[in-house]
From TrEMBL:
The protein's name: ABC transporter ATP-binding protein
GO terms under cellular component: ATP-binding cassette (ABC) transporter complex, substrate-binding subunit-containing
Source species, domain of life: Bacteria
Molecular function (Gene Ontology), one example: ATP hydrolysis activity
PROSITE patterns, per the entry: ABC_TRANSPORTER_1 (PS00211), ABC_TRANSPORTER_2 (PS50893)
Annotated PANTHER family: MALTODEXTRIN IMPORT ATP-BINDING PROTEIN MSMX, OSMOPROTECTIVE COMPOUNDS UPTAKE ATP-BINDING PROTEIN GGTA
Coiled coil: 56-87
UniProt KW keywords: ATP-binding, Coiled coil, Nucleotide-binding
A Pfam short name: ABC_tran
Domain ABC transporter as annotated: residue spans: 2-243
Signal sequence residues: none
InterPro entries, per database record: ABC_transporter-like_ATP-bd (IPR003439), ABC_transporter-like_CS (IPR017871), ABC_transpr_MalK/UgpC-like (IPR047641), Mo/tungstate-bd_C_term_dom (IPR008995), NA-bd_OB-fold (IPR012340), P-loop_NTPase (IPR027417)
Length: 430
């Protein structure tokens, strides 16, 4: 406390400078951007986020006589420091220049200790959570890989930390136990109030456990959002392709926006379709915005190239090569160098592929994988393959002729030129 209070007194010795720094973090409407203000104070005074938050809590920028207010706060802090020093003196201790407690010339180090009963209760509590109670009398060499993984999780949870960093903690567990542990970790996250930083390649774990997902490709952050927003509104083709099992269906399209806001498209080489955005949008304005961003990025890159001190990073943005599922993928496609903002990529999640007798497209069942609760079906239309999910115990025969449509308003529209998400909407085939 003494160290923090002393730092605050030094900062408040120049209250006008503090207020000026805070006011610089207001927007045009004079609304304070708290996060920006915290970063500003941390950088300016080389202090911690806790001290920066305390400075903001004083709300000096809202007070007319800031000098008097700062003086009052400083006097109160000095009184608290004197009280703290008196307590140390009464216990034959003092503080050195690093604000460490010193007794008889030696720094006093306090270690948190637990008695045997507390240790036993903590061990048994976490052993029940990860279901290793029956293995408590075994040596590590007598445990399987999955059991050792559960012991590692238990050791992490035992001290009840405020932040946990987990790197694929469930990778060695069998499928049934992995599902149970997901449920336990989700409950623990709520019960403990701890922050979980969870690294995984299993998107099912990410979708079911996370409050927010951070998706990184080649060292570049692509999206940081809530799981369902990542699934339903991916920032680009990479995110859309990475998240979802079964994977999303992609197909190329070309078209123009009509006066009513819909987009007339040509898909599957010669099929006419109409895309209706979920929310009204002007493609002309969207294209202008993208071109302006491209120009700004180009100017920035040119400026960096002129800077001799600039080091080019190897993980810079690269254009994601999305995959369109086909029966015959042996054909080598040449890169189209004439791609413009009138070229699109349609993304359709499997749950929006609807098989019905009233369907506008005709195809045949390429494969069908029933699991009881649902059936994953691959449908062939010409050389193209579409994956659909039919809920319930439905059986399809290989080669069976079916009709399908793209149902719902969750069909995604991406720019083929830069891979960015444009809109959600519905797709009707003529």
């Amino acid at each position: 406390y003494v160290k923090n209070a002393d730092k605050l007194i030094k900062i408040l010795s120049k209250p006008k400078e503090v207020v000026q720094a805070i006011n610089e973090c207001k927007d045009k409407s004079e609304v304070l951007d708290t996060n920006r203000a915290l970063i500003k104070l941390i950088d300016l005074y080389e202090t911690s986020i806790y001290t920066a938050k305390e400075i903001l809590d004083y709300k000096l920028q809202e007070i007319s006589n800031i000098e008097e207010k700062a003086k009052q706060i400083s006097e109160k802090l000095k009184a608290n420091i004197e009280s703290a020093l008196k307590k140390h003196k009464d216990s034959n201790c003092s503080l050195n220049e690093n604000y460490e407690v010193v007794r008889i010339g030696k720094v006093v180090k306090t270690v948190r200790k637990m008695n045997k009963e507390e240790i036993d209760l903590a061990v048994r509590r976490v052993s029940r959570i990860v279901k290793i109670g029956m293995f408590m009398d075994r040596y590590p060499s007598e445990l399987s890989g999955g059991q050792q993984q559960r012991v590692a999780i238990a050791r992490t949870l035992a001290p009840e930390p405020s932040v946990l960093f987990m790197d694929e903690p469930l990778s060695n567990l069998d499928a049934k136990l992995r599902l149970e542990m997901r449920s336990e970790l989700q409950r623990l996250h709520i019960d403990t109030g701890s922050t979980f930083v969870y690294v995984t390649h299993d998107q099912m774990e990410a979708m079911t456990l996370a409050t927010k997902i951070c998706l990184i490709e080649n060292g570049v952050l692509n999206q940081y959002d809530r799981p369902l927003d990542v699934y339903n509104k991916p920032n680009n083709l990479f995110v859309a392709d990475f998240v979802g099992n079964p994977v999303i269906n992609f197909m190329d399209a070309k078209g123009v926006q009509l006066e009513d806001g819909n987009i007339a498209l040509e898909i599957l080489k010669n099929v006419k379709a109409t895309y209706t955005p979920k929310e009204k949008m002007d493609m002309g304005n969207w294209i202008k915005q993208q071109e302006a961003e491209e120009d700004s990025k180009l100017q920035s890159e040119l400026a960096k190239q002129k800077d001799k001190k600039n080091v080019e990073k190897g993980n810079k943005d690269s254009h994601f090569r999305y995959h369109i599922a086909k029966v015959d993928e042996s054909e080598i496609l040449e890169e189209d160098k004439t791609i413009s903002y009138l070229d699109y990529v349609i993304g359709i999640r499997p749950e929006f592929v609807k098989i019905s007798e009233q369907g506008s497209l005709t195809g045949e069942v390429y494969s069908a994988m029933p699991t009881g609760m649902e059936t994953t079906v691959k449908i062939r239309i010409g050389n193209f393959l579409f994956t659909g999910v039919v809920f319930g115990g439905v059986l399809y025969e290989i080669g069976q002729t079916v009709k399908l449509d793209f149902d719902g308003k969750g069909v995604m529209l991406f720019s083929r030129k830069n891979g960015k998400f444009i809109s959600q909407g519905s797709l009707s085939v003529e």
